[in-house]
Amino acid sequence: MLVHQADSPSSIVGRPSSVFVDSHAHIDGPEFDADRDEVIQRARDAGVRAILNVGTGDPHNGSLERAVELAEHHPDLYAAIGVHPHDARLFDEAAEERIHKLLKASRKVVAWGEIGLDYHYDNSPRDVQRAAFRRQLVLAREAKLPIVIHTREAEDDTIEILRDEWKESGLGGIMHCFSGSLTLAEASLELGLLISFAGVVTFKKADDLRAVAAKVPLDRMLIETDCPYLSPVPYRGRRNEPAHVIEVARAIGTIHGKTVEEIGAITAANFANLFGLRWPCETSA
Ligand SMILES: [Zn+2]
Ligand SMILES: [Zn+2]
Question: Could you read off the pLDDT of 106-122 as tens digits, one per residue?
């Protein structure tokens, strides 16, 4: 059971009533080398009380270790580690060993991911992606960790594999940066997953996605930045960062008739429940 104590009050700056969680960020990457501490502070100032930082990249070159180190360094950062579908061709026994070592070393690793299928970029052959996805689902089950799923233009295969390998696990997970169909959203809910929306939901041309978001119950929803990518309106064209998750909350609030603070509090509680964290749930009560 993962139970973390409340963060020290000194690190909570800004509006005390606001609680947001960025459920998917990549702030360990080189895009943030010059000003990472300022980026984290800006998030705290904006009311972002937790960030799930997702380690991706070649699993053999220290990228996963870097993500875990960052989470170890900050009380309000958590880590997910896994081999992204882009890098599925690099997934092997040595990668498994590195991940297992990190899971043993750090309590801040709360999820296995991001894993899944990406048939848009096809950076790894599709059969290799499917094999790495299935294998990591088995490993996540053994490790008793929720998963973070990345899927793009691969809905049918993603649903089929999750039904085979994950449905009975009872461990849950996150369908991250959701940009799929209503069918995928319904299948994700049926699989016990939370659906996380990113800045795409703020884009002018995203009416279809907003229609799907309107049908996702708020108690099954998360918000994320996926930074440095996918800056929401009005920050498009610039590097994204966790403080901007508020713009995603605003868009979801408009869709569901709630305030930005209400969306923040609800999605923060969903995040805390998924990972068995008492915090930031307690601070939102
Ligand atoms: Zn992704
Ligand atoms: Zn990502």
Answer: 999 999 999 999 999 99
- The alpha carbon torsion through 158, 163, 167, 168 (nearest 10 deg) reads -140
pLDDT of residue 278: 77
Q: How far apart are the first and last CA of the chain?
A: 21
Question: Within a 10 A sphere around the Cβ of 208, how many other Cβ atoms?
Answer: 12
Residue 225 Cα to ligand 2 middle (Å): 9
CB 232 within 8 Å of CB 247: yes
Cα of 285 to ligand 1 centre, how many Å?
31
Which distant-in-sequence residues (6+ apart) come within 8 Å of 28 by Cβ? 53, 55, 63, 66, 67, 69, 70
DSSP 155-215: HHHHHHHHHHHTGGG---EEE-S----HHHHHHHHHTTEEEEE-GGGGSTT-HHHHHHHHH
CA distance linking residue 137 with residue 130, whole number of Å: 11
CA of 54 to the centre of ligand 2 (A): 6
User: How many Å lie between the centroid of ligand 1 and the Cα of residue 46?
Assistant: 24
Q: Is the model's pTM score more than 0.85?
A: yes
98 alpha-carbon distance from chain centroid:
21
